[in-house]
Every structure is written in C-alpha cells, then in structure tokens.
Amino acid sequence: MKKILIIGGVAGGASAAARARRLSEDAQIIMFERGEYVSFANCGLPYHISGEISQRSALVLQTPESFKARFNVDVRVMNEVVAINRQDKSVTVKNQLDGCEYCESYDFLLLSPGASPIVPPIPGIDNPLTHSLRNIPDMDRILQTIQMNNVEHATVVGGGFIGLEMMESLHHLGIKTTLLELGEQVMTPIDREMAGFAHVEIRQKGIDLRLETALSAVEYVPQVHMASDAAGEDTAHQHIKGHLNLSLSNGDSLDTDLLIMAIGVRPETQLARDAGLEIGQLGGIYTNEMMQTSDPAIFAVGDAVEEQDFVTGSQTLVPLAGPANRQGRMAANNMFGRQESYQGTQGTAICKIFDLAVASTGKNEKQLKKEGIEYQKAYVHTASHASYYPGAEVVSFKLLFDPSSGKILGAQAVGKDGIDKRIDVMAVAQRAGMTIEQLQHLELSYAPPFGSAKDVINQAAFVACNIMKGDAMPIHFDEIDNRSDEQLLLDVRNPSELQNGGFIDGALNIPVDELRDRMDELPKDKEIVIYCQVGLRGNVAYRQLVNRGYKARNLIGGYRTYKFAKA
After folding, report:
1. Where are the alpha helices (DSSP H) in 105-223?
2. 8 Å CB contact between 125 and 214
3. Residues 25-75: pLDDT tens digits?
C-alpha cells in the first residue's frame, strides 16, 4: 500500500490527491494545509470583494469533510510541514492549533506550496491598512478594512493580474482608486502597444493610473479624534483605523485609506531548500519532465516550481492555475508508474479589465528580443463577428511568428468580445505545431452573430503570410517616428477620418480610392510609407504602388496600433 503525503491543499495539491485516489482505493493519502482552507478558488477572491460573487461559501470548493467523504483523503488543515527528512522518508508536522509536532512517513511526497506575495522593504509598509491577497483570510482582512475604515480612496501597487482585478473590484464598490505601476505598462504578458488599449480603458473608468511610478515610503496616520454627531461634528469622512500618506518615486505624495500590494509573487521554496532539494536558476524548485525533484520520491508542482517553456524549451516560472492543476494530476499518475512527461507551459492567460478582455499565449515580443529569437509580427483590428450584425466589437490581435519557418511564437488579443476563443484557438494551434500558413486554412464556426467568414485568426495569418512570402513589406509602429529623408509618409484614409480620429504629422493624404488617378503626385525616388486606420486599405495601396514600380512599405496594424502604443 502506497503512502502519499501532499503539502499544500490548493490547485496542484488538491488535484493530485483526487487523482491519486481515483487510481487507487488502497493508497493512504494525507494532505497538509497550514491555513484554514483547502481547495478554495483563489482566482475568485477579488470578485467576492467586489460583491460580484455574493456568497463567500462559493469560493470553498472542498472542505476536509467533503474531501474525506468523496475521496477518502485525510485532510489536515492548520497543520504545517516544517521539515522534510529525506533519509528516513518522513516529514515533521506542526499542529498550528496546539503547537505540538509529530512525524509522518511517506513513500511519495508532493510539494505544492504555491507562491507568496512579494512585499518589498518599503519604510512604513507594515501597518494595519496595507494588505496583499493570496487566500481567504487575506480577503476577509481586506473586506474588514473596507467596512470598518469607511474607505473612500484606495491605492493598488502593481499592474499584474491581481492588481488589475483588485483595482476593478474597488472601483465596483464606488471607491476612488489609484493604480501605481513601476513599469511603462500594465499586464506584462502582453506588449506595450497592446497594453495601450488597457490603459485607455482604465483611465476612461476614472482610475488614477500612474505608470513608471513606484511607492517609496508609507506613513501610517492613526485616527486620533473620533468625531461625534452628538457634538455636531462631521462624521462623514472619518476613518476609524486612520489613513496612509504615501511617498512616490516621482516626488508626489498621496493620501489613501487602503493600500493593496500586488507587485508579484515568488515561489515558496524554503522547505525544499532546507531539505537539500535542487533549486533552479530562476528560484523555483527544480523538477524533471515527470515533475520529480532532485529526489525521485519527491514531486513538486504549481507556482513553486520551474517548468519548461513550451516555445523555447528553457526553464520558466509561470504562476497560473491551469498548469498547476495539470501538473498535480500528472504527478499522481507518475507515482503510480504511468511515466508521463509534462509537455511545457505556454502561459496562456486572460484578464478582465472593466469592459475589456486582455489575453495572450506563448512568448511576447519583449521575451523574444531578450532571448535573441528571430521573429516577425502581424496586427489586425477586425470585428468579433460579422460587422453588419448588431453587437460586433473590434478585436485587436497580434501574431508573433518565425519569419523563416512560420512557427507560431505567440499571440495577444484585446477587445470586448470574442477574445477568449481567439487566444484559445491560438493556444491549441501553437501546441499542435501549426504554422502561420496552416492557420490560413483553419475552418472556424461562422454565423453572423458569432463570427466572420474570414475569422480574425484567418486574417492575421493572411497578413503574416503576405509578410513571409514578400507580398507585403512591413513597417511597424515603433519605426514610424524615425523616418528618414528618403521616405515619404502617405495617409490613404478619407479626410474626415483625419479630422475626427487624428493623424501622424508630416503625412500626405491621398484616399486609397483616388490613388490610381493621383499616383503621379508621389516621387519614385523615395520609399512610400503607407498607413490607414488598421492596415487593410494600406495593403491595397501598397499593392497598387509596388505593381507600378514604386518602393513602398505598409504600416501593419495601421494608425490604430500606432495611436494605442502611445496610450
């Protein structure tokens, strides 16, 4: 009879426990969780704070009692594993309630400790109004502060998934919110020009977004005097627990009633380090393709581990629920001799930012540059379904590919409708090893309420293949402002579009439908740099010009990409 111990009762740990039981009724399975809850929906925590998930109980997917009843797993909450004794294959456990310690032996051990929020050593950061969000008790403390402190203004530090979700949750509660982000953009899985759409949405909703701004110091100011209605004093804006004065890196200061730290997470590896297990170069627990650590009897999964990047094959850290759950299932399989290999992580992710969805899969441009991988890119901005059917929204889509082989390197999409299905299709296509040439032939469901005869993905593949085959000579948004004297900028939109939607300085305007008759106005001794709104008319103009002997390039993604790259 196998004895399996699992450290960590969320995502990967819970998946491994359930899978192990399905594989064997005889195994003894014990799951340790140092907190109060197992198998809770940590991705749903911000939505309970906002009230969109009204029932707190909905976040608790399993309890120790339900796990025992359904899977016959011995779940021990408030029990922390404090040491791994590899030589005798046992762990030392501390009962958090009474402080006593005891040992449990194992045949196999699974580590699923997750990742902890990064809280930098900022002066004054340790105060009653500063919180991070990782689990249900954290959520309860944030709600308590909101309710008790009459929070009128909140500040969120960090523009990643948790920071953006908390920003929206606080706004949903009617709390004025400032978002501080040290980098030049929110949502680092996507590239800067795609993040521009999120920046516009955030600001339009009234959020005080401050990019390239860090938190330098925090001063906690307690409430010294409590106003009283009986004394005729104004009680509307007092805060029982006080407020904070924030000092920012640009010299500004900010008064706030609640501070949420959401700058990222780091793998929890101390237990593994103390046990002498190998730690990877990125700081996560090393695992092989079977999710075994440097000790074959010990497996590790989830946010604490380094895993193989699907695109590059190099090690990476990807703290996402999907990979953690799949790894937990696979580790359990391998404990029972299945010999399965983890196939790598793409990092497929999506985030709701008010009315927008922002999603990506694979590598982004920043990562490709850093790793020295040759790439080319294509942009399209087209309707989520047939534009003549009511409710169509613009899907802004970026495709990254190898210009030699056509291999799909990554994809990003932003918009109000149809974003998830486009990135999900791209994630499948990438994992299946499809090329951009093959993407052209995808046969996706079409009816006017749901899609288009030429889907967003088909259109992106058409653009990419045009570039790869030499049918289009691209120029990109980040090259436009660095034009030489040997280039002439041509705007082929209609004059009304320039008046209403903006334009790039220095451009000659000839609408595409007039271009054939006015082509002699263009010099043949200069390269004509063409742009339109999204790149489609620009391509029509480009083909006209090159077929007449002109040297030309088309702005891929058009003025829309150029404009939002600066947002």
Report:
1. 136-148, 161-172, 192-204
2. no
3. 999 999 999 999 998 998 999 999 999 999 999 999 899 999 999 999 999
258 neighbors 243 (Cβ within 8 angstroms): no
Q: For residues 543 and 25, what is the distance between their CA atoms, to the nearest angstrom?
A: 67
The strands making up 356-362's β-sheet, listed across from edge to edge, are 349-353, 356-362, 408-415, 394-401, 376-383
- Residue reference for tokens 């949502």: 187
Separation of alpha carbons 408 and 436, rounded Å: 6
Strand-pairing partners, residue 83, are 92
**CA-based diameter of the chain, in Å?**
89
Read off the pLDDT band of 242 (50, 70, 90): confident
Distance CA 219, CA 259 (A): 11
Q: 532 catalytic, yes or no? A: yes
Q: Give the span between the Cα atoms of 129 and 126, in whole angstroms.
A: 9
Which runs of E-coded beta strand occur in 443-504?
A: 474-475, 487-491
Closest Cα to residue 132, out of 215, 252, 202, 46? 46
CA 270, CA 10: separation in Å to the nearest integer? 18
Q: Are 38 and 77 in contact (CB under 8 A)?
A: yes
Which SS3 state, helix, strand or coil, does residue 264 take?
Answer: coil
Contact between residue 414 and residue 197 where contact means Cβ atoms under 8 Å apart:
yes
Catalytic residue among 43, 103, 351, 532: 532
Q: Which residue is associated with the tokens 């983890």?
A: 342
**pLDDT at 234 > cutoff 70:** no
> Are the CB atoms for 539 and 466 separated by under 8 Å?
yes
pLDDT in tens, 250-269: 999 999 999 999 999 999 99
